[in-house]
Amino acid sequence: MAVKIRLARAGAKKRPFYRVVATDARSPRDGRFLEKLGTIDPNHEPTKVDLNMPRIDYWIGVGALPTQTMARILKQAKKSASAGA
Length: 85
What we know:
alpha+beta, CATH 3.30.1320.10, five-stranded mixed beta sheet, 2 helices
């Protein structure tokens, strides 16, 4: 089973809210998932990002591939975490 780390859209029309999930690559975008790994709320300024980095690192360690969008978000999150430390 190919596992992807990707965004699942939630929230109302014109008010997006995203869950970061680990899911089977064959599942639909907002469908079934294996584990919820965080949230992203673009309605705040700046965008509110809450990620469970130990679990994301676990999934990547066992072979899950992030989508292009998630790879960019993870890169920014790691960059900001190292700058804040």
